[in-house]
Design brief:
Helix content is about 25%, strand content about 30%. By secondary structure, it is of the alpha+beta class. A 7-stranded mixed sheet has the order 7-20-14-8-11-10-9, covered by helices on one side. Strands 1, 4, 17, 18 and 19 form a 5-stranded mixed sheet that branches. Strands 2-3 form a two-stranded antiparallel ribbon.
Length: about 375
């Protein structure tokens, strides 16, 4: 954005009140559009003017259009094949206070402080936008695992939305014995497990899973799996099966599905510990879109109208007025967001438990 030689577009950047809702919101939205969350590809974003989220689950795939006689009446779409439920989206909001003595220090137009002032505001907005992005990345991971269930200990607000993945789309390898779980590097049959489960999902959903999601820690165990090593380093027909593909030294695809890693972390406000959102002992098989209807994605993220003073959906910002006595002088900026990721076709997702969580983690911690 070009700036005037005499005064910035922020009009004495220290005066935060001059940064209107539109300017702040556009700045935040610019930071919102950045890659980083690999799961976001399964949840294309849509703006809606509704304050709530209507989740429509199509129970028999995309369906087909009816055959009719030319010139004769057609039939109404069979709405009985669509389950519709309305849920409340997630509302986020937080504020950042800037003391007056900091504002005074940034109010020196034409000096180096002018540039520092722009960077000061930009850094604050970017930090808040990153926190908003990270919150929705956590929600997307939870949605792909079958449901969002989160209570913020700072506010006590709970968000609970079941994605209704069918029970038949869940598989647990722990019941097959210790030699079949993926922490058994010498005997685990990960390729076989994924191939069979993928075909089972295809038989019910009529679309083949295209991606498998897991933690990078678990992917490291696959790199050490005896069966996978034999297929990669073996010779002849075994090496040419195409069940495993490596690119740049990384496991790229297995059993016909691209490998996606989810290592999203969050700081637990209660225990003050850093945790992974994605469990180390779970993988998700996902059909990102239907083979015969490329416009149909497995999920969606609706951005709704929430508390934006201008009535727009999704991310918004505003600057607050000067504080009133006896509080010390200063101004605040506030950011909010409203939306929800959800699965439109939950039968396109399968969840496989590949071992006991503690055992898998112990193997990861001790492998050399």
């Amino acid at each position: 954005m070009p700036f005037s030689g005499q005064i910035t577009d922020y009009s004495q950047v220290g005066d935060i009140a001059s940064l209107g809702t539109t300017v702040l919101t556009e700045m935040a939205q610019a930071f919102e559009q950045f890659p980083g969350d690999p799961i976001a590809q399964f949840f294309p974003m849509r703006n809606t003017m509704d304050p709530s989220v209507a989740i429509e689950r199509v129970r028999q795939g995309v369906g087909i259009a009816p055959l009719v006689e030319m010139g004769q009446p057609d039939t109404m779409t069979d709405s009985a094949l669509v389950d519709r439920r309305v849920v409340q989206p997630a509302h986020t909001r937080e504020s950042d206070f800037v003391p007056q003595h900091v504002i005074n220090n940034l109010r020196q137009v034409g000096t180096m402080n002018e540039k520092v002032g722009r960077e000061f505001i930009t850094d604050r907005v970017q930090r808040m936008t990153n926190r908003s992005n990270h919150f929705f990345a956590i929600l997307r991971a939870m949605a792909l695992l079958g449901g969002i269930n989160y209570t913020d200990p700072r506010t006590g607000v709970t968000l609970n939305v079941n994605m209704q993945i069918p029970a038949g789309n869940l598989r647990d390898l722990t019941g097959l014995g210790a030699t079949r779980t993926w922490d058994a590097l010498a005997t685990a049959t990960a390729i076989r497990d994924l191939t069979i489960f993928r075909q089972k999902l295809y038989a019910t959903a009529k679309t083949k899973p295209t991606h498998v999601v897991m933690r990078s820690d678990l992917k490291t165990l696959l790199d050490l799996n005896a069966d996978i090593i034999a297929r990669v380093e073996g010779s002849g027909a075994l090496n040419a099966t195409g069940f495993v593909e490596y690119r740049m030294g990384e496991l790229y695809a297995i059993a016909g599905m691209q490998v996606i890693t989810c290592d999203t972390l969050y700081d637990d406000p209660v225990t003050n510990t850093r945790k992974y959102v994605w469990p180390v002992h779970k993988v998700a098989l996902v059909a990102s879109r239907h083979e015969q209807a490329s416009g149909e994605f497995v999920g969606r993220q609706d951005m709704c109208v929430g508390e934006d003073p201008m009535g727009r959906p999704g991310l918004w910002m505003r600057s607050g007025p000067d504080t009133s006595p006896p509080a010390p002088p200063g101004r605040s900026i506030q950011m909010g967001n409203t939306g929800l990721p959800y699965l439109r076709y939950p039968d396109w997702v399968g969840i496989m438990t590949v071992g006991v969580e503690a055992t898998v983690q112990a193997k990861i911690d001790t492998v050399t």
